[in-house]
Amino acid sequence: MVTSSSLVYLIGLPLFGSLFLLLMGRKADKWGHLLATAMSAGSFALGLAHFFAMTDRPTEERALTQVLFSWIKVGDFNVDAALLLDQLSISFVLLITGVGTLIHIYSISYMATDPNRRRFFAYLNLFVASMLLLVLGNSYLNLYVGWEGVGLASYLLIGFWNQKPAYATASKKAFVMNRVGDMGLSFAIMIAFATMGTVSFEGVKESVERAGTPALTAMGIMLLIAAAGKSAQFPLQAWLGDAMAGPTPVSALIHAATMVTAGVYLIVRSNFVFDAAPTAQLMVVIVGAITLIFGAVIGMAKDDIKKALAASTMSQIGYMILASGLGPAGYAYAIMHLLTHGFFKASMFLGAGSVMHGMNDEVNMRKYGGLRKFMPITFITFGLGYLAILGVPPFAGFYSKDMIIETALNAGGAKGIILGSLTLIGAAITAFYMTRVMLLTFTGKPRWDENAHPHESPALMWIPMVILSIGSVTSGLLLYRNDTFKNWLAPLFHDHAHHEELVPPIVVSALALTMVAIGVAIALMKYHFKEVAPVAPEDVSWATRFVRNDLGQDSLNETLFMKPGQAITRGLVAMDETVIDGAVRGVGSMAIESGSTLRRTQTGYVRAYAALIFVGALALLTAIWVVTQ
């Protein structure tokens, strides 16, 4: 029987695996990957046990809390290092440990020839442990520790092959941009402490009614900044594409199941703040709407298969952020799409790794073609993920993404028209670029060179892909049927409003499928019925070049932040050299000059010293006489 006292083992198992492998060093090279996989699998098994135990308890008794120790105690302010397992966190626990374990298994074969495989698995375990702490912490401070742990682990994993300068640069870019978002979380915690005197989720929830709207709005905006950094949302999205520098299993772990979903978790967990701060909630919707289009447009122009999937992730997270900004009507659907996305996007990322494995690490899709004949399992599993992300019934995305589109359309008024239109346009663009990925990779004439020898991946790689593809098919229906998942999360949200059905579900599905069909048709005309060049044409329009350049996001960041920052740094360096160092050198020069002057009095002659003593004594006696008169 599982109890609250066993919550710590959910985190403790992968954390132990990470620390043990790092401390053991080369002694664990031969079996370290097996230990790490076992620790992740053990955490998943324990999570399953907690889930089934939770379903057996009455709704009001499902949440469990385990206090580990008193962390901060100053006057009336007290923060415990404590864990909270409720309906929301158990959903993430199963996703993180389940998909994470499959990625561990996949990595055993994928990283088989890497001399640092043990260290890689230690970092994977650290990532899983940090993500579990993030979703299990019962306060913003406990969440913050896991939040920073995820940032550290992602830095280590993205830059794992840091002998390549570009990879090291990519890891630093991700780390720095995430630190910008982390400042938002820091300020949100400070606002909660200053205005409410508490940083626990329950304490903030109870204090919302007496907290002022300006403070709640400020806190909501700071939480949104944090979410934008971690989930690669506008305007902090530029790091995501470069993060593809890490090994492909890292891409699956970060971009599908864990790190990029942390921002969605933060907003939904903080639902009581956003429900009481309409301005901040509106900004969440705006950020999500911009990003879902932004990422989709970028995905259209990417020839790198991993970067195309990364842009897709950015866009799909945008759907989730938008839904979470629609309040109680959208919270459950944001998490539902997050879970289904974890299956089909992890399946496709691992499929991309399988293709790279068979194509001598080539990532340019223009140099693929016709791989379905050589990699049938990869083709089928990737194809199921493709159908799921398009939202084709009865695959997972049909249920989760369509519900977000429906909720957006039912927002009412101009808001509903704008948001509904953007979600439908995003669906069409998604259908176009994902069909492009499928066509360039698996169909058409082979375009690879003589060094490529495409072949199916080993069983340890394709078995996790098969399991994830099953989730791509079934997870949506299982969560949607009879409002199962919505009812599961309902106790965590205050939803007493009546949500009017302005657009019937059948109409929403028809509109979404029509947009998907348009996107697929355009991709077929462009990449199936025409010859595909193995090299991207250079003679293209300025718009195409702009999209290829990620819509100028790096150039904008360099112009607005990097170059002014460099100018300020140069100014500070000049000030340091001239003012601060100059003052220090001036004091030193004065001391040297004074010493040189005084040194002249040291003649070495006794009579000179006697004369100085006489003059000093005479001056002293004169002073005493003057004072005493």
Automatic annotation (TrEMBL):
Keyword Cytoplasm set for record: no
Keywords in alphabetical order: Membrane, Transmembrane, Transmembrane helix
One Gene Ontology molecular-function label: NADH dehydrogenase activity
UniProt-recorded name of the protein: Unannotated protein
Residue runs in coiled coils: none
Domain NADH-Ubiquinone oxidoreductase (complex I) chain 5 N-terminal: 71-121
Membrane-spanning residues: 6-24, 31-53, 88-108, 120-137, 183-201, 213-229, 250-268, 280-301, 374-396, 416-439, 460-482, 502-524, 608-627
Record-level GO cellular component terms: membrane
Species this chain originates from: freshwater metagenome
Broad class of where this protein is predominantly found: membrane
Membrane topology summary: Multi-pass membrane protein
Residues covered by the NADH:quinone oxidoreductase/Mrp antiporter transmembrane domain: 139-422
Annotated localization: Membrane
One Pfam entry name: Proton_antipo_M
The keyword Hydrolase is annotated on this UniProt entry: no
GO biological process terms held by the UniProt record: ATP synthesis coupled electron transport; electron transport coupled proton transport
